[in-house]
Amino acid sequence: MFRSNFAPTSVARKDKGITGLETAIVLIAFVVVASVFAFTILSAGVFSSEANKQTIHAGLKETRTRLAQQGSAFAFAGHEGSTQAVFKIVFIVSNSLAGEPVDLTAPYSADDSGLDPDIVGGASTATIISYADENQRMSDVAWSQTFIGTNNGDDLLEDGEKAEITVWLMDRVTGTAVGSNSSIAYTDGNSGNGGSASGLTSSDSLVVKSTRFVLELTPQLGAPLTVQRAIPPGLRNVMNLN
Questions:
Q1: How far is the first Cα of the chain from the last one, in angstroms, to the nearest whole number?
Q2: CB contact at 8 A, 164 and 145
Q3: 3-state SS class at 112
Q4: What separation in angstroms does the CA of 95 have from each of 21, 99, 145?
Q5: Most buried pick, 41, 66, 158, 184, via CB within 10 A?
Q6: d(CA 212, CA 83)
Q7: What distance in Å separates the CA atoms of residue 75 and residue 170, rounded to the nearest whole number?
Q8: What whole-number distance in Å separates Cα of residue 86 and Cα of residue 84?
Q9: Which residue(s) pair with 240 in the sheet?
Q10: Contact yes or no for 86/230 (Cβ under 8 A)
Q11: CA-to-CA distance for 166 and 162, rounded, in angstroms?
Q12: Could you read off the pLDDT tens digit of each residue along the chain, which spans 242 residues?
């Protein structure tokens, strides 16, 4: 009788022990699964955030211009026949994004001899300049550059460097004084005989007094630099457009 009184209690204790162990295993498994799930979610979130950040930075690089104009813009006038007109526009640019160089390999140069500008044979030009006014638009005009101040001698505009950009709308006949008749000429579309192959032709309108115009410098990467100015109401050989 004594043994029979204690037998059920022993069995109950064993059942309770097994039940507690199973519960602990289930809880541990739940915690492990939850931890793995949370780690997966966090990892996906971090990866997504990093991808979004890279996308945003890439978008900013495409929408921000890498060029900034420094100082004034100048227009230079000569005479096509006896009519005075603007033949080139000059301004200075710098790099607006430190560490992001801009390729300013120019398609033309100028040497104050014969007809200017002179085509640079084999030049691989990455930056394009367009011109527009109320009478015409040219999507790819002739331009040349000269680095001024401190620079490392290459054609990359880097942080701390400045370059003078000359946009050629017409040819300059260097052997004739700029104030004399026929000191500038329309471009004939053939740079082989000197001068530009992409500028105002005889079928275009001369850039004369009070002409409003827009220049766009479009680098290989980034947004264009826009220069908007107006020619003064009275033409002179050199005019400050600011």
A1: 117
A2: yes
A3: coil
A4: 70, 9, 14
A5: 184
A6: 18
A7: 12
A8: 7
A9: 74
A10: no
A11: 13
A12: 444 454 455 545 555 555 666 777 767 776 777 777 666 776 666 555 555 555 544 444 444 678 999 999 999 999 999 999 999 999 999 998 776 899 999 999 999 999 999 999 889 999 999 999 999 999 999 999 999 999 999 999 999 999 999 999 999 999 999 999 999 999 987 766 678 989 999 999 999 999 999 999 999 988 999 999 999 999 999 999 98
Contact criterion met (CB below 8 Å) for 176 and 182? yes
DSSP annotation of 197 reads S
The two structure tokens encoding residue 48: 């997504």
Whether 200 and 186 have beta carbons less than 8 Å apart is answered as yes
Compute the distance between CA of residue 232 and CA of residue 240 in angstroms, rounded to an integer.
Answer: 9
Q: Are 92 and 242 in contact (CB under 8 A)?
A: no
Tokens of 63: 């929408």
Longest Cα pair distance anywhere in the chain, in angstroms? 139
Residues 64, 69: Cα–Cα separation, whole Å = 14
Using only C-alpha atoms, the chain has a radius of gyration, in whole angstroms, of 36
For residue 105, which amino acid is it? T
Record the tokens describing residue 239, joined without a space. Answer: 């005019």
DSSP state, residue 193: G
